[in-house]
Amino acid sequence: MPFTQPEDFESFLLACQDKPELSSVALELEALRSIYGEDTLRLHRPPDSDDRDGPIVNDSEGWRVRYEVEVPLTEDPEVTIVVLVTLPPNYPESSKSPQLQLLNRYVGDFGVDSDLFGRVLRTFFSIPPPDGDGVPFVSGDVAVWEGLEHVRGICQEWYTNNTITISELSATRDAAHPQKSTPSSSRPSSPPQQPASRLPTQLPEGIVIYTSEPIVDRKSVFIGRAVQITDPAHIPIILNYLLEDKKISKAAHPIIHAYRLHGPGGSIIQDNDDDGETAAGGRIAHLLQILDVMDVLVVVSRWFGGTHLGADRFKHIGQAARDCLEVGGFLEEKNLKASSGKKK
Questions:
Q1: Nearest partner of 314 among 272, 289, 282, 290, judged by Cα
Q2: Are 339 and 228 in a shared domain?
Q3: Final residue of a domain: which of 113, 142, 157?
Q4: What is the pLDDT of residues 297-324, one digit of tens each?
Q5: Nearest to 256 by CA among 248, 264, 244
Q6: Residue 89 CB: number of other CB atoms within 10 A?
Q7: Which of 30, 51, 27 is nearest to 40 (CA)?
Q8: Where is region (Disordered) located (predicted)?
Q9: Both 44 and 127 in a single domain?
C-alpha cells in the first residue's frame, strides 16, 4: 500500500511514531515542540510537490524527513526565523548530518543577505570548535536542537549588528545635516534605511563554473553547473556564491547537487543533496559514478513553471548535469584517458 502524506503536523508526528526507524525523530520532534512551542513546528510543502516530495519520503536509502521550525530571535514576537530541517535517511544513525536552511527573506526589517544564508547552510558542514564555528555531528546522536540554537545565535548577532549599523547611519546623517525643529505634521518622513552592504562571496582561486544551456519543459527550466574541485571545503563556498545570484536564488530548487573527489589514502569523498527535489541529488551522484568522473561538483537549478512534470523532471535534471559536464570537458577528459588505456 502506498504511503499517504500527512495533512497536518499531528498526523506527521503520528506517522513518525508508527515507524520504528523514525522513533528517534519522533522523540526529537516532541522535544523541539516543548522547547519552542506547540505551533512552531510545521510541515514543509514546496510549490511543486507531490507524495514523492512530501515531509516523509521513503527512498532507496530509507525514510527522509523534512519540516520547518519557527524560532524567536528577540522579545518582539514579529522577529522570528523559519528554518527548514532536512533529515537524511537513517538519521540519527546515518553518517550524514542534518541540513538546515533559512527560509526567511527578511528578519525584522532587514533583508537576509547571502552571507547569513550561507552561514546557516554550513551549520553542520563548517569545522566545529575550537578551530571553527560549526556544530559537530556524531552518528547516533540527535543534533537538530544544537543546530537550531547555533542558527539562532548567528541570526541574533546578524540582526543586532544591522540594528546598530542603522542607528550609526542615522546618527551620522543627523550630525551632518541638522534639521530645524518643525511640527511633526509637516516634517517629511525619512525613507527606510537599508543595512550596510556586505562583500560578495569570492570564489577560491582557480575555480571556474561551467554552465549548460537551459532545458525548458512546460515553462520549467533546468540549468546545470559543473566545477572542478580538489578541496571539499570549497563546496559550501561555491554553493553560497551561486545562491548570491538573484536568478538562481529564486529557483524552486536552486542547488540540487552532488560531488565526488579523491580523498586521502586513495579514498573517495562523495555526497549529494536533493534541495527539496526528492532523490534528485542521488540521481546526480549516480550519474557521476556511472561516468566515473572525479574531482567535480555538479549543481542543477530548477525553476518551476506551474505545471507538474512528474518523472520527466528527473530526466531533465540528469540531462542538465550531463550537459554541464560536457561543457566543462570532464567527459572528454574521461574519454581521453579511456582511449589512452586501450592503446597500451
A1: 282
A2: yes
A3: 157
A4: 999 999 988 888 888 888 999 999 999 9
A5: 248
A6: 18
A7: 30
A8: 173-201
A9: yes
State if pTM tops 0.85: no
- Asked whether residue 153 falls in the same domain as residue 214, the answer is no
What's the grid cell of residue 289? 559514478
- AA identity, residue 63: W
> Partners of 258 in the beta sheet?
272, 298
Identify whether residues 244 and 111 lie together within a single domain: no
Query: What Å distances lie between residue 8 and 40, 55, 275, CA to CA?
Result: 13, 10, 22
> What percent of the chain lies above the pLDDT cut of 90?
26
Find the CATH number of the domain harbouring 285. Answer: 3.30.230.30
Q: Which of 97, 129, 157 is a domain's end point? A: 157
Residue 24: Cβ-neighbour burial (10 angstroms; 0-12, 13-18, 19+): middle
Residues spanned by the domain of 279: 209-343
Q: Is residue 320 part of a domain?
A: yes
Which of 140, 161, 136 has the alpha carbon at shortest distance from 150? 136
Q: What is the DSSP secondary structure assignment for residue 50, as one 8-state letter?
A: -
Pairing outcome for strands 99-102 and 80-87: antiparallel
Q: Strand (E) positions, the chain?
A: 41-43, 56-59, 62-72, 80-87, 99-102, 106-107, 110-111, 209-211, 215-217, 220-228, 253-262, 268-273, 296-303
The residue among 200 and 191 whose pLDDT is bigger is: 200
Burial degree of 30 (CB within 10 A; 0-12, 13-18, 19+): middle
